[in-house]
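hi! just following up on the protien thing from before. the input was this:
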Amino acid sequence: MELFREMSRNGPFPNTVTYNALINGMSQLGRLSVAQELFEDMYAYGLIPNTSTYSILLHGFCMNGQIDKALELFKVMQNSGLKPNIVHYSILMDGLCNVGQHIVARELFCGLSFKGLEPDVYTYTIMIKGLCKARLPNEAYEFFRKMEANGCLPDGCSYNVMIQGFLQNDDVSTAAKLLHEMVGKELFFRKGWRAPFERISVSFTSSSVQRLDGVINVTKSRT
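and the predicted 3d structure came back as:
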């Protein structure tokens, strides 16, 4: 920050890239008030925040649970003439889900097509995770199947989130079916990660554990 102040006084004067980097740094440190001040200072230097600036600060607010400020910033972006893209909507939906506002997040998701936007695998996975967190695995599963029907193929992360959602609700049977499906698509190999099912911190009945053990053993043999 000291170097930044020196630049502001004597030059070279900071540009949008400089501000974006600082706003991101302050957001990562949880210093959102400083990040917001930097955002507002941009106008004093004749700089206009770009889409990256907004996504950085939106993510900072959402990451720190300040969803009201995130929603306010989102409106500022819309009023500025910049058109939010799927990244901005995804960040906001993730923030809403994280504070238990999955209904509002779902409304945003359902309105994407009217904005001329198509949800990507990341957007779908956010909604799946949010609904699972709200203990609505069946609704999450509807999103999971809808994404493939809409031409957006689930990746390893999508499967992992959906499987974990069923496991957290003690639906081992459906989780096992999805795990078999996932291994059959060789998503482990393409994504380069290993299933963390041995470390799941949810309580199951002994019969459920035995049923899942067989699936885990198959997974290990394939990865």
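The chain has 13 helices and no strands.
The chain has a mean pLDDT of 82.
cheers
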